[in-house]
Amino acid sequence: MKPLFFTAAFLLISFFPSGNILAQDSTATLKLLFVGDVMGHGPQIKSAEIIKNKSYDYEPCFKYVAPIIESADLAIGNLEVTLPGKPPYQGYPRFRSPDDLAKALRLAGFDMMVTSNNHSNDAGKEGLIETINTLKEYGFYQTGTFKNQKEKDWYYPLIVYKNGFKLAFLNYTYDTNGLPTKAPTIVNLIDEKQIEKDMTMARALQADAIIVLMHWGLEYQLNESPEQNKLAEKIFDWGASMIIGSHPHVVQPIKMRQDTLADSLIVNRLITYSLGNFISNQTKPNTDGGLMFEVSLYKNFTSGVTRLEDPRYIPVWRYIHKDKKGKATFYALPVSAFEAEGNVLGMAANKWKAMLNFARKTRKHLSRYGAKERKINLEELQLTETRLEIKETERSERKKDFSKKLN
Question: Residue 190: is its pLDDT beyond 70?
Answer without folding.
Answer: yes
